[in-house]
Amino acid sequence: MINRTMQxxxxxxxxxxxxxxxxxxxxxxxxxxxxxxAYVLASKTSFFHFVPHNGLTKxxxxxxxxxxxxxxxxxxxxxxxxxxxxxxAASHATLVSSVLVAV
Length: 103
Description:
Elements: E1 14-17, E2 20-28, E3 38-42, E4 47-51, E5 55-59, H1 61-102
Antiparallel strand pairs: 1-2, 2-3, 3-4, 4-5
């Protein structure tokens, strides 16, 4: 997520990219590849793919849908990994507490 700017890059907010004012449709996380997050932006008639430092690319509606679906898939994977990690930590804490009670 872009955080060192005066603009709000949250979904649904209007942002200025160059001379265009566009609405943020989706933020697509790119975990593990050390690239900045990508964004799907929309004007009244077009969709755009934006990656900071790489520029703005005009895309078709089906490409925007594919990018949004990919972003949702990545978010679901991250949520599942966080839940698994929390579950493992909780089971470890339960095991440690049962060992301490038994002693």
